[in-house]
Amino acid sequence: MSTTQLFLLPDLGEGLPDAEIVEWHVAIGQKVRLDEPLVSMETAKAVVEVPAPCSGTLLRVAGKPGDVIATGAWLAEFEIDPSLPQRATGHDTGHGHGGGHAPAPATPSPAPPREDAGTVVGAMQASGEVRREAAVAIGGVKAVPAVRALAKKLGIDLARVAPSGADGVVTLADVKRAAERGEARLADAPAPATARATPEAPAAAMPPERAAPPAEAGFDTDAPIRGVRRNMVRSMAAAHAEVVPTTLMDDADLHAWAPGEDITVRLVRALVVASAAEPAMNAWLNAKEGTLRRHSRVDVGIAIDHPDGLFVATLRGAERMDAAAMRAGISRLRDGLKDRSLPPEALSGYTIMLSNFGKFAGKYATPVVVPPCVCIVAAGRLYHGVVPVLGGIETHRLMPLSLTFDHRAATGGEAARFLKAMIDDLQRAR
Question: Does a structural domain hold residue 207?
Answer without folding.
Answer: no
